[in-house]
């Protein structure tokens, strides 16, 4: 397969840092375009009366966090001719699948927290969902990867 578009799914975790590094290195070696996706999770947009924030303010904060994270990844991994930025809003696992199709990505690169047991059952696994539903190869970096 010819990889010309690599979609890197990130958040603000150290696990995403590994995924970004691997994705950018692959793109550089393959002369591929990079898309960085940070999904703004709509489930986190609830008003917080304790902090005095409304849903609209929470949405703005989440969007700013996504943009800031994307900027950091791009700054760290300079050297790619074209980097596309995506901040879709919704459930991250669904947005990764949807965007991979819309942008016509050839591969998805993402990190995993490496949760197991009860913790994974309670929180779910975005990586597992993407692996099961993607129509293209998915490279998942783990906490144990160097």
UniProtKB/TrEMBL annotation:
InterPro entries: Rossmann-like_a/b/a_fold, Universal_stress_UspA, UspA. It is found in: Cytoplasm. Residues 3-141 form the UspA domain. The keyword Cytoplasm applies. Transmembrane segments: none annotated. This is Universal stress protein. It comes from the Bacteria. Belongs to the universal stress protein A family. Keywords: Cytoplasm. It comes from Parapedobacter defluvii. Its main location: cytoplasm. The lineage of its organism: Bacteria, Pseudomonadati, Bacteroidota, Sphingobacteriia, Sphingobacteriales.
